[in-house]
Specification:
The structure holds two protein chains of two kinds. Chain A is mostly beta strands. Chain A has no helices and eleven strands. Chain A has strands at residues 5-7, 10-13, 19-24, 31-37, 44-50, 53-57, 64-68, 74-78, 87-94, 104-105, 109-113. Chain B is mostly beta strands. The chains are: A mainly beta, B mainly beta.
């Protein structure tokens, strides 16, 4: 069983640029969530995708957007990068629509915005 | 407004003793609570969960206690082992079906278990 994989693991961008982060969900999982973890903070929910549609969003501006593909992999896109976007971005997958919050996380993509 | 709070940034415990990690929450509408463990350079790993209708859940060395009246939960690790050294996140969620990915996390407590 393949776990959640994310790419790239590290990247550096400058203010105003755009970034795309990728995630492959665990085998058999059809739901993907994205979290932002700033330094010294807990993960913060960005949004969730289920069957290729966004079905939940946290308190993030529209310049954070995403996609889920038919194979359940996902992308997180951030436009007009700001310094405060520097963080670890975590992707998590889960199975089905009913569970108690058990998510399977990838190792994350660490984004640095200069 | 932090809905899930872990007030102790760090905890140091001797191997073989009990580790108690605490978490407070403010939203009485949470349906379930979870603990995740995170090692450096790895993603968080699910450890144990508890439904809001229960007050205790046990899994091996790990037990989670929920006190709804105090809006408080704790994770007990007995006995503690050096491999338990990690950052522990408390998380809470609402609803079943479709929105289970929307978890509210605390800031984490770094546990160090000394041999």
């Amino acid at each position: 069983e393949t776990g959640v994989t994310q790419s790239p693991t590290h990247l550096i961008k400058t203010r105003g640029q755009q970034v795309t982060l990728r995630c492959s969900s665990q085998s058999g999982h059809n739901t993907v969530s994205w979290y932002q973890q700033a330094l010294g903070q807990g993960p913060q929910f960005i949004f969730q995708y289920y069957r290729e549609e966004e079905n939940g969003r946290g308190n993030f501006p529209p310049r954070f957007s995403g996609l889920q593909f038919p194979n359940y992999s996902s992308e997180l896109n951030v436009n007009a990068l700001e310094l405060d976007d520097s963080a670890l971005y975590l992707c998590a997958s889960s199975r089905g629509t009913y569970n108690t919050g058990e998510l399977f996380f990838g190792e994350g993509s660490r984004l640095t915005v200069l | 407004d932090q809905q899930v709070k872990q007030n102790s940034p760090s905890l140091s415990v001797q191997e073989g003793r009990i580790s108690i990690l605490n978490c407070d929450y403010t939203n009485s509408m949470f349906d379930y609570f979870l603990w995740y463990k995170k090692y450096p350079a790895e993603g968080p790993t699910f450890l144990i969960s508890i439904s809001s209708i229960k007050d205790k859940n046990e899994d091996g060395r790990f037990t989670v206690f929920l006190n709804k009246s105090a809006k408080h939960l704790s994770l007990h690790i007995v006995p503690s082992q050096p491999g338990d050294s990690a950052v522990y996140f408390c998380a809470a969620g609402r609803g079943y079906g479709g929105s289970q990915g929307n978890l509210i996390f605390g800031k984490g407590t770094k546990l160090s278990v000394k041999p």
